[in-house]
Amino acid sequence: MPGHTHFDESTEEYLEAIYRLEREGPGVTTSALASELGVAPASVSGMLKKLDGDGYIEHRARGEAKLTPRGLEIGVRVLRRHRLAECFLTEMLGMPWDEVHEEACRLEHAISARVEQRLIDVLGDPQVCPHGHPIPPADGSDPPHPDIPLAQIAAGEAATIYGVTEEVPEILRHLGDIGMRPGAKVKVLEKAPLGGPVTIDVNGVRHAISLELARMVTVLA
Fold first, then answer.
1. For the domain 148-220, what is the CATH code?
2. Under DSSP, is residue 65 helix (H, G, I), strand (E, B) or coil?
3. Where are the domains of the chain?
């Protein structure tokens, strides 16, 4: 297999980010991409023009972008391999869930189709990554999103934690410390007014978390 060039990896990073923002985020704009990738808006504008010229995206007014079928194929492929790598690192190598995102960002560009299939076989064809994000189907169809934010659960109701929208290590460490991982049972005890904290019960232990954090945790009601 030919090796990746720097431009190849950069293209993959952009197409993966565009896919995520299209399907899992607020939409694809220059500012959203700049924030997602940690680069200057001017750099994003130049890259979007390049991707449009190469047929990977349709670049619209106000910086909006939409993947073409060619771009969708690459974005899906890279994100699938990223999330499969996260599963491998946690399940097979025992790495903490707050450390695997950055490592998977490096691995996603090097995984071949053959290794991807072996990961699927060895891991038992996982449908979500360790953080609860769906692994997109290879055919580009939209994966199911049965989850809703914990912040939408009413006081007195119980739910099962599905995932965490932000893969920020500090947030993941804190959630892991209090037992808020995918599959854990949680009950909302109290919801303070005016954006105050949400009091929850996780495995019989009472915790107060911010409304902002409750919006980042998704659950199955």
1. 2.30.30.90
2. strand
3. 1-144, 148-220
Domains 1-144 and 148-220 fall in the same CATH topology: no
Per-residue pLDDT tens for 114-152? 999 999 999 999 999 999 999 999 998 988 888 899 999
How is 129-149 classified by DSSP, letter by letter? Answer: -TTS-B---TT-PPPP---EE
Contact indicator for 186, 161 with CB cutoff of 8 Å: yes
Asked if residue 63 lies in contact with residue 31, where contact means CB atoms within 8 angstroms, the answer is yes
Report the length, in residues, of the chain. 221
Whether pTM > 0.85 for this model: the answer is yes
> Is residue 81 classed as helix, strand or coil in its secondary structure?
helix
Residue-wise pLDDT tens digits, 91-112: 999 999 999 999 999 999 999 9
Question: How many other C-beta atoms lie within 10 A of the C-beta of residue 127?
Answer: 12
Sheet of 198-202: strands edge to edge? 148-149, 217-220, 158-164, 185-191, 198-202, 205-209
Q: What is the pLDDT of residues 192-210, one digit of tens each?
A: 998 899 999 998 999 999 9
CB 107 within 8 A of CB 77: no
* Contact of 60 with 74, CB cutoff 8 Å: no
Two tokens, residue 82? 């990223």
| Other beta carbons within 10 Å of 219 | 27
CA-CA distance, 66 to 72, in Å (whole number)? 9
Spatial distance between the Cα atoms of 54 and 51, rounded to a whole number of angstroms? 5
Give the architecture-level CATH label for domain 1-144: Orthogonal Bundle (1.10)
